[in-house]
Design goal:
The complex is a heterodimer of chains A (142) and B (294). Chain A is an all-alpha fold. In chain A, 75% of the residues lie in helices and 0% in strands. Chain B has 294 residues and is α/β, with parallel strands linked by helices. Classes of the chains: A mainly alpha (142), B alpha/beta (294).
Chain lengths: 142, 294
């Protein structure tokens, strides 16, 4: 009795069934995009672990992975699904969400940063626009 | 192939201080529709979840098709259908996507049956699960379990929270579908009439222990309520081994017993020098008497 490849359906299922991870990712990336220094005093900022890398996404990823398994365990584990395939598909989906979001955010920074900065910093949008266009061009040339 | 589809030996499982299953033994023959009866918290869900491989037993073993449900391969798992007590379907999915997703895991998925049931139930494939009523979601859950043509079907309170009419329609549906092909079904409920309608055999669970396991007819034939009266002497130490309940009233004693042979009652009456009157019990009375004894 042969069944279809299970990996991609499970990957898609994990990817689409988790508003939590998408919300967290978007929230944190906006947070990153705005820049923490614009929101909190400098002395507190220096003590925070937040920085430019994506390590701060590890905790929400694990949290969401936990929520995902709690809410879908009964549904998935009672189907004829290969557990190993399910694990790798779910892990890849969970990692790929913030990674993909980050890439999209970085490339589109030139467009969203000025908007956010106007709202949060009330600073000149043109400054950010120029700065991020430069960044965008740099990415494109790479 | 073994005669028994399900074998449970000395199964125990607790959650903190709560002993959900306590040294439970049970075997269910292939092709039997087995009804599990019990109050809320009697251990029905724990037992079914253990058989589905969702709960690890602390002691003893539960075997499904002769195998440990935790270590089933995908091919072996294709032979087992499970309908949860809770609504466990992914609510964001449309019915058609859910069916497409699930059907991919089963080699012998019956698309014709799927379509037929959907038409019969009048459920649109375009609807999302969270747009369905509770009854419709349960029917979809059952459809997903049936379309894979399982050898063993585990149904945990599949008709819970449905109104009387919806429940009856739903059970008729189950009956139609499971009788068409010889399937082993474990069906739990605390609604006695549901169990009585569809089960070949019944097991009554009380505080994690299987108090009795027999066919509905056998239970009705053997479990009786007896009124002992007109005692000629003083009644002392009125005890009947194996009696479910014994109630002492002013001049009479009421006892609920399982009588292997009708003559047994004659010898009991002779022993205590009294007369007796037998009352037949329906399933509800039997259930109450058995659970009361604990």
């Amino acid at each position: 009795m042969k069944t279809k490849n299970q990996f991609w359906p499970l990957f898609k299922f994990t990817f689409l069934s988790n508003p939590y991870i998408l919300c967290w990712t978007v929230f944190l990336l906006i947070f990153k995009a705005v820049g923490i220094s614009s929101l909190i005093p400098e002395d507190i900022e220096s003590s925070l672990v937040y920085n430019d890398d994506m390590s701060y996404l590890i905790l929400p990823i694990f949290l969401c992975l936990h929520i995902f398994y709690r809410s879908n365990k009964e549904f998935l584990w009672t189907r004829a699904i290969n557990r190993k395939t399910e694990f790798w598909a779910a892990t890849l989906a969970f990692i790929s969400i913030p990674v993909l979001s980050s890439i999209i955010f970085d490339y589109s920074a030139a467009f969203y940063k000025p908007c956010i900065s106007i709202i949060v910093n009330k600073e000149s949008a043109s400054y950010y626009l120029l700065q991020n266009l430069e960044k965008c061009l740099l990415y494109s040339s790479l | 192939m073994k005669d028994n589809a399900i074998e449970i030996n000395h199964l125990s499982r607790s959650f903190g201080k709560n002993q959900a299953l306590n040294n439970l033994n049970l075997s269910v023959k292939r092709g039997c529709v087995y009804g599990l009866l019990g109050h809320n918290g009697a251990g029905k869900t724990t037992l079914i979840k253990t058989l589905a491989g969702l709960i690890i037993p602390e002691k003893g073993a539960a075997l499904i098709n002769g195998l440990n449900p935790r270590n089933l391969t995908t091919i072996e798992r294709q032979k087992i259908g499970y309908v949860s007590e809770r609504q466990n379907l992914p609510t964001h999915m449309k019915v058609k996507n859910l069916i497409k997703f699930c059907s991919g895991f089963y080699a012998n998925w019956d698309h014709e049956l799927t379509q037929r049931i959907l038409t019969q139930l009048n459920i649109s494939k375009q609807k999302k699960i969270n747009q369905l009523s509770q009854g419709q979601a349960r029917q979809i859950n059952l459809l997903l379990a049936l379309a894979q043509h399982p050898e063993i079907l585990l149904l945990d309170e599949p008709a819970a929270n449905l109104d009387v009419v919806a429940r009856r329609e739903f059970l008729d549906e189950i009956l139609n579908l499971i009788r068409q092909q010889e399937r082993t079904v474990i069906f739990s409920s605390h609604i006695l009439s549901d169990i009585e309608r569809i089960a070949d055999e019944i097991g009554i669970l009380v505080k994690g222990q299987l108090k009795i396991s027999a066919s509905v007819d056998e239970l009705k034939e053997t479990i009786k309520k007896i009124r002992f009266y007109d005692f000629t002497g003083k009644v002392e130490n009125f005890e009947i081994p194996g009696a479910f309940t014994i109630t002492h009233l002013k001049d009479e004693i009421l006892a609920t017993l399982q009588l292997a042979k009708p003559e047994e009652i004659e010898s009991i009456a002779n022993r205590f020098r009294c007369r007796y009157e037998i009352t037949n019990l329906n399933l509800e009375d039997i259930f109450i008497e058995i659970t009361k004894s604990s």
